[in-house]
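DM between two lab members

TW: hey, do you still have the Peptidase S49 entry open?
JB: yeah, one sec
JB: this one, 324 aa:
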Amino acid sequence: MVDEGATAESHGRESVHREAVMERWLLEMVREQRRSRRWKIFFRLLFWIFWIVVAAAVAFMVTGDRESLVSNRVGVVKIDGAIDSRSPASAERVIRGLNNAWQGSSTAVVLQINSPGGSPVQSQRIYDEIRRLRSTGDKPIIAVIEDIGASGAYYIASAADDIYAAPASLIGSIGVIYSGFGLEGAMEKLGVERRVFTAGENKDMLDPFQPVNDTQRRFWQHVLDQTHDQFINAVKNGRGDRLSDDPELFSGLVWTGEEAVDKGLIDGLKSVDDIAREMTGSAETTDYTQSGDPLEQISRHFGRVAAQYLGIDLQAEGSPVRLR
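TW: and the structure you got?
JB:
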């Protein structure tokens, strides 16, 4: 016979065990939910703190704490490399940096230039913005040329209140250039026929596979001369009677910083540090140079490497007329 009492007792123990297991499981679920809620709250707080810090940083960069941080520092904007619409020294970036420096520094704005020149359009835009800013206040804009400040770079510098350089800096090259190749003879030797269809008799002018006739040559020389005249007038308006009467001043030659002082192209031999110390007693400056997107910078770097490997001159792209 089955012991009914023992069986009931066994079932009772099993029931108590199941209840205990269920209770522990429920308690663990509750604890897990509490832990999960705490982590959710923590990450939400972290998320909002991050964006508050980012917003505060952006607001600070836009408005600037002028009174406490940069009001007594010289604001610096760098023009480095070829002046081109797609380069770090494009008019858009330089002008944006200039305006930020103008708003952020009550002492002076310094253009730190190290450029062989580039696009006349980009150079003229920056020149005009410097002149506009100068007309709106009594804060000086000073150009400091480092290794080289030639052609379009000097075009820009001539808009400043004063220009300084190092004794060995290269300065000037006030001229305009267009360069290309004539490959029509090579085409004939290779037996290759060039097929170009145009509407307008001069539409294929400067095509390297077509000869240039005298009329086209005179027309293109007129374009270069007109651009050169604009360059000369800008320099004269910027430098005024500080320029010497040397007939070679606008011939495209370059001079050292030491020679440029005598010719009135610059006002003296000083560095950015020298100017900052004279104005504030400290060599510390605030850099307002506008840098591009990191991915854009990486892409540009690989582009330069590839161009060097293939022997391509990237500076030749864009406007065919160059101030260099």
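TW: got it. The beta strands are 74-80, 109-115, 141-150, 162-165, 170-172, 254-256, 268-269, 285-287. Residues 9-63 form one domain.
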